[in-house]
Amino acid sequence: MSPGVQVDCERVDVLNLLSNVLPVVRIVLGIMLFSSISAMLHAASFTVQPESAKEGFSITEQQAIALFYQRNLHLIAASLNIDNAEAQEIIAGAIPNPVFSFTLQELTPKAFARESRHLAVPAQVPQIQQLIETAGKRRLRIESSELATEAVNFDVQDVARLLTNAVRHNFYNLLLAQKTVSVANNNLEHYLELVRVNEIRLKAGDIPPMEVVRIEVESIKAQADRDRAQAELNQAQADLLLLLGWPEDSPEISAVEAWPEAIPEIAMIGQEELVRGALDRRPDMRAARVRIAQARKMLTLAQRQIIPDVTISAFYARDQGNQFANTGGVGISVPIPLFYQQKGEISQARVGLNSSELALRQIEQSVRTEVMKAAAAWRSADTIARRFEASVTGKVEVLRKSQETAYRKGAVGVLELIDSQRSYRAIMLDYYTALANRSKAWADLLMAYGEEVKEVRNSPRYLTDQFAQFPEDRPEFRQAPGNQ
After folding, report:
1. Which of 145, 159, 84, 88 is nearest to 459 (CA)?
2. Coiled coil: which residue ranges (predicted)?
3. pLDDT value at position 319?
4. 481 contact partners, CB below 8 Å, separation of at least 6
5. By C-alpha distance, which of 188, 220, 235, 252 is closest to 59?
6. Which domains, from first to last, does the chain contain?
7. From CA 482, how far away is CA 91, in angstroms rounded?
8. How far apart, in whole angstroms, are the C-alpha atoms of residue 94 and residue 97?
9. Coil, strand, or helix at residue 317?
10. Beta strands 252-255 and 56-59: pairing type?
11. Which among 129, 133, 128 is positioned nearest to 95, based on CA atoms?
């Protein structure tokens, strides 16, 4: 065989070998490429997942209020006034300390001279004095300070009453935002399903292209509504967490979807009875009454200051120069109210009493107005919400489903379908808004009526017992710097 023919045969064998090997190589390379891409995606998902996954928890209204008592700095600052009042109580009840004095008498320069050593030493007179308050002044001071402490306790409870209402309002705002997102998601899902069905019907020639475009436009609007609702939800979460005093890196919080139930003992009674109950139980009214009693005590104390206090004394004298070297004695001293009879203090105390009585009348008028407005607002909001529950919410879902069925069968046009979807969204949002308004009106009525508030100073121990099921052992609770 010639060399040229041999070379051609070798080329043919190589080409045949390559043609047999290349498909296998392609498969192997494809598998390697697919494995590499899968590993990269898995690594990327493993890396991103902890950052994107944000652990959250649900919270009830009572748990939100309990957490507020634990963490809110305003109530902690207000509770410090109770400690200050209790310190004033101790000061008011203090008994004056006795006064000890030591006196050397008959001192002369010659008494310490060498030639005078045989003479008597200077007289030594130790003495003790004790002030005795008369006319029950100390008892009046103690009673006045005790009343002041009681009034401060009522002040703190009144602060808690107001701030508890703020917590409730923020909780209901969060619940309303959650319902709004739910309606927006439901509306978007329906539009996306209609877009999918219309694309199939368009391919089959059942509907014109314009109907598909209109549904797609409405789905885009529904997506925008969902985005706005989500932004409002984020804002409501931030507002509640801020009021609760939560740290910056807080978990995602959600409200347990349960609207408050009205208490029949409050909701069913008349307006005048509500006013009388509020006047009896509101902490601001009780604080004003206590301050009147305190002002009367202070007026009585100022009047009794005219009666002078008595200072008694006892002494022992050691004087070698007297006939009796060791003697003793007692004494008494009383200031004489000759030029000043405490008229300024009495006038000042009387002005304080008049101011306290005027403050009580002003608070009473304010309480009447608040209760009347809150009761009227509650009854109006309750009526609106009941109308929705009785006649609207059950029918609107049936109407929307019937319109969708009729549209798919060609009985109604796309405009009627879009109108039914818009009506459903608007009615459901109005319904949830009515529920939120009723809940806020109920919270305002509880605040105006004077809902009983636990003593703020003892709230941490109380919350530990009553809300043991609250997830305090979760990492976000343990690691939160504001929860130390």
Report:
1. 159
2. none
3. 78
4. 247
5. 252
6. 57-105+120-479 (1.20.1600.10)
7. 35
8. 9
9. strand
10. parallel
11. 133
89 contacts 146 by C-beta, under 8 angstroms: yes
Q: Which amino acid is at 68?
A: F
Q: Which two tokens stand for residue 366?
A: 């304010």
pLDDT digits (tens, 9 = 90+) for 164-184: 999 999 999 999 999 999 999
The answer to whether the beta carbons of residues 141 and 93 sit under 8 Å apart is: yes
Residue environment code for 199-215, b if the CB has 16+ CB neighbours within 10 A, otherwise e: eeeeeeeebeeebbebb
Nearest to 183 by CA among 228, 220, 241: 228
Angle of CA points 407, 412, 413, to nearest 5°: 90
Show the tokens assigned to 360.
């009580």
Eight-class DSSP state of 409 = T
- Residue 80: band (very low, low, confident or very high) from pLDDT cuts 50, 70, 90: low
Helix axes 414-449, 343-391, angle to 10 degrees: 150
Q: Rounded to whole angstroms, how far apart are CA atoms 272 and 264? A: 16
Q: Cβ(291)–Cβ(162) under 8 Å?
A: no
Closest CA to 439 of 207, 272, 306, 255: 255
Tell which residue, 86, 78, 74, has the closest CA to residue 155. Answer: 78
**Distance separating alpha carbons of residues 427 and 393, to the nearest angstrom:** 8
Q: Which residues contact 125 (CB under 8 A, 6 or more apart)?
A: 102, 103, 104, 105, 315, 316, 317, 318
d(CA 130, CA 430): 77
pLDDT band at 468 (very low <50, low <70, confident <90, very high): very low
- At position 401, the amino acid (one-letter code) is K
Q: What residue type is assigned to position 179 of the chain?
A: K
Interval 283-306: pLDDT, tens? 999 999 999 999 999 999 999 999
Mean pLDDT for the chain?
Answer: 78
Write the DSSP symbol of residue 429: H
- ∠ CA 459-463-466, rounded to 5°: 135
Cα 73 to Cα 243: distance, rounded to the nearest angstrom: 10
Rounded to whole angstroms, the Cα distance separating 437 from 226 reads 22
The beta-carbon contacts of 199-207 under 8 Å, at least 24 apart in sequence, are 206/410, 207/414
In residues, how long is the chain? 484
By the 8 A CB rule, do 294 and 331 touch?
no
Owner of token pair 């409002």: 232
Structure tokens at 423: 């009506």
